[in-house]
Amino acid sequence: MQVFTARPLSLHGFAAFLYACSLMKLGSRKHLQQDDLWAVSRRDEAERVWQHFQNCLQASGGVVWRAAFRAYGGPFVQAGVIKVFHGETVRLLTSGAAQCT
Q: Dihedral of CA 88/94/95/96: which sign?
């Protein structure tokens, strides 16, 4: 059996948790309407995202993974670099703090 320990939430995780909890509480009292949700930016509307992916799919010769990388690869690569940098920074700081004690 795996035991998971609690980790402190980041600011973004805490905000997402509060937002989700409030939506679930509201949804248990009444049917949610469009006005109850955050507005989606015009760039992230489903029709625009789908059209962008279709264009990338045609440009990549119908290969789905290439189209996905072409359409969304940049933000995922940026997030990966930030994650690695953050992880290494935390590792170095915690290993340095352990040596000081």
A: positive
- Nearest Cα residue to 57 out of 76, 39, 71: 71
Tell me if 17 is assigned to some domain: no
Rounded to whole angstroms, the Cα distance separating 73 from 62 reads: 17
Residue 39 lies in a domain: no
Is the Cβ–Cβ distance between 60 and 67 less than 8 Å? yes
For residues 45 and 34, what is the distance between their CA atoms, to the nearest angstrom?
14
pTM > 0.70: no
The Cα-based distances of 22 to 34, 40, 63, 87, 90 in angstroms read: 15, 18, 40, 31, 32
**pLDDT (tens digit per residue) in 57-72:** 999 999 998 998 999 8
Query: Which residues of the chain, if any, have pLDDT below 50?
Result: none
Contact present, 82 and 75 (Cβ < 8 Å): no
Q: Is 11 helix (H, G, I), strand (E, B) or coil?
A: helix
Domain hosting residue 76, numbered range: 64-101
